[in-house]
């Protein structure tokens, strides 16, 4: 009977850590999906470099800044630097992680 209790305890400890592992794997899969396409490997930062100096609307996954109308200033492998002009005409510089970007639309 003690063996059954010990076995149940070990199983519970194994499954207790499972949600953290799933969360980490989801993040890794998301990064891979952003970097690959059907035609081969295309790094998203290379695509975003074409938008440097252009006005864009960026839709992010965060609730803090869900939609930005901004100008793309610089692009790195993991980061994008944008300048946003608020209603008062003041320029705010933001640095966003590329993996947190859902969509980007160029404003013509």
The top-level CATH class of the largest domain is Mainly Beta
> What's the assembly state of these chains?
single chain
Radius of gyration: 21 Å
Q: What class do helices, strands and sheet pairing give? A: alpha+beta
The count of helical stretches stands at 3
Give helix % range: 25-40%
| Total discrete domains | 2
N-to-C order of helices and strands: HHEEHEEEEE
Main sheet, how many strands, which sense, barrel? 5 strands, antiparallel
What's the shape? Answer: elongated
Biggest sheet: strand arrangement: 6-5-4-3-7
CATH topological fold name of the largest domain = SH3 type barrels
Distance between termini? 73 Å
Protein name: Preprotein translocase subunit YajC
Describe what this molecule looks like in 3D:
The protein is α+β, with helices and mostly antiparallel strands. It has two domains: 2-41; 44-106, SH3 type barrels (Roll). 36% of the residues lie in helices and 36% in strands. The protein contains three helices and seven strands, in the order ααββαβββββ. The protein has helices at residues 2-16, 18-35, 44-49; strands spanning 36-37, 40-41, 55-60, 67-75, 79-85, 91-97, 101-106. It has a five-stranded antiparallel beta sheet with strand order 6-5-4-3-7. The chain has a two-stranded antiparallel sheet with strand order 1-2. The termini are far apart. This is Preprotein translocase subunit YajC. It comes from Alkalicella caledoniensis.
């Amino acid at each position: 009977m003690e063996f059954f209790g010990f076995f149940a305890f070990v199983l519970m400890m194994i499954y207790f850590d499972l949600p953290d592992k799933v969360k980490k794997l989801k993040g890794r899969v998301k990064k891979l999906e952003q970097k690959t396409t059907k035609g081969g490997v295309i790094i998203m930062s290379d695509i975003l470099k074409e938008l440097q100096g252009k006005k864009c609307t960026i839709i992010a996954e965060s609730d803090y800044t869900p939609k930005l109308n901004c100008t793309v200033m610089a692009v790195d492998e993991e980061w994008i630097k944008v300048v946003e002009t608020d209603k008062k005409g003041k320029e705010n510089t933001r640095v966003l992680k590329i993996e947190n970007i859902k969509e980007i639309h160029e404003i013509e």
